[in-house]
Specification:
Mean pLDDT: 85
Shape: globular
Structural class: alpha+beta
Strand order of the largest sheet: 2-1-9-8-7
Low-confidence stretches: 32-71
CATH superfamily: DD-peptidase/beta-lactamase superfamily
Distance between the termini: 70 Å
Number of domains: 1
Largest sheet: 5 strands, antiparallel
Keywords: Carboxypeptidase, Cell shape, Cell wall biogenesis/degradation, Hydrolase, Membrane, Peptidoglycan synthesis, Protease, Signal, Transmembrane, Transmembrane helix
InterPro entries: Beta-lactam/transpept-like, Peptidase_S11, Peptidase_S11_N
Active site: 119, 122, 176
Transmembrane segments: 12-36
Helix content: 40-55%
Protein name: D-alanyl-D-alanine carboxypeptidase
Number of strands: 9
Order of helices and strands: HHHHEEHEEHHHHHEEHEEEH
CATH class: Alpha Beta
Length: 341
């Protein structure tokens, strides 16, 4: 009888031990999955203070020597990185291709050289709009919002029109409307000049030490410049905000405006990104998550995008100062073809 009881006790003990081992294995598996998921998130944080940057100096010297000190999970390249199958066509083109999962620089050409960003500037305007704006607020368009050089990209609005911040934000991000950039700057900063100060403060906080903004839209000014690496830092920050990531993937936006007399009018605003409009096709097995274009005579054609390869790994590609849009998309496809190789 005692022998039978002993066997029962041993059997029960074995079942308890097996159950404990299974629980440990399951918990460990869950822990590993959570670690992988956290590592794959696109929110690449940094520990950086503007004061440290000011004390350390600005420009490419800071980017090269100080970036590892302030970057946590950020991509850093100390110079040119060559890909055998990639050669940018323009003599002045700057470009990069970064693996956002591993922080690896797959390609880098002139990424710390100053360049004119054109409407790539509007990424920073969008960041401040999301951080400090209230999307439900109504904004009355002012004459000063249209004080732009002839031929500027504008939405079709007029002084006295009433729109929301959300509508201005979409006109800015989707259509790259310069009048929307001016109205957002005035609404957020009180004055456009103060908003530009906020842009430069935000740039410094992000480690964008090769950047200086003069306006919220990117129309040419000799003192308005950035670098391809700083564009990476800026777009990386913008993708933290769902409002930006949602808008940047839209191929078209209907802007509905209330006129001063109470009547309403609607404008169709097509994306400036030719990938989104279907005018250009990305390489096979490349999923475009969105980005921003920019074009002026002085800046050439510019594009900064985030894309995923066939396995869902995120990459960022930036090209500045291509000679024209045709070359821009040809060179961008050269970069994007590398993410599945």
């Amino acid at each position: 009888m005692k022998s039978t009881d002993n066997r029962k006790n041993i059997h029960i003990l074995n079942r308890v031990l097996i159950g404990t081992v299974i629980c440990i294995v399951v918990l460990f598996a869950i822990f590993v999955i959570l670690l992988i998921k956290q590592d794959r998130e696109m929110d690449l944080s940094q520990s950086y203070s503007p004061q440290a940057a000011e004390n350390s100096g600005k420009g490419s010297e800071f980017s090269l020597q100080k970036a590892p000190a302030f970057a946590s999970g950020l991509c850093v390249s100390e110079g040119a990185v060559v890909l055998p199958d990639v050669m940018l066509q323009g003599n002045t083109e700057k470009g990069l291709l970064f693996n956002l999962d591993t922080g690896e620089a797959l390609f880098a050409q002139g990424i710390y050289d100053q360049a004119y960003p054109a409407s790539i500037t509007k990424i920073m305007t969008a960041i401040l709009a999301v951080k400090y704006g209230t999307m439900e607020d109504q904004v009355v368009m002012a004459e000063g919002d249209f004080a732009l050089e002839e031929g500027s990209q504008v939405s079709g609005m007029a002084a006295g029109d009433i729109v929301t911040m959300d509508q201005l934000f979409h006109a800015l991000v989707v259509y790259s409307a310069n009048d929307a950039a001016m109205a957002i700057a005035r609404q957020i900063g009180g004055t456009v000049d103060h908003f530009v100060e906020m842009m430069n403060e935000e740039a410094l906080a992000l480690g964008m030490t090769g950047t200086h903004f003069i306006n919220p839209h990117g129309l040419h000014d000799g003192s308005h410049y950035t670098t391809a690496y700083d564009v990476y830092l800026m777009l990386n920050e913008a993708f933290r905000y769902s409002a930006f990531t949602d808008a940047i993937q839209m191929n078209m936006y209907h802007l509905k405006v209330t006129r001063g007399d109470g009547s309403q009018v609607s404008f169709r605003l097509d994306s400036t990104d030719k990938y989104l409009t279907g005018e250009k096709t990305a390489p096979k097995n490349v999923n475009l998550l969105g980005g921003k274009t920019g074009t002026t005579s002085e800046a050439g054609a510019c594009l900064a995008i985030i894309a995923q390869n066939a396995y869902g790994v995120p990459y960022m590609a930036v090209i500045l100062n291509a000679d024209n849009r045709s070359i821009l998309y040809e060179d961008m496809n050269k970069l994007l073809m590398q993410i599945n190789s």
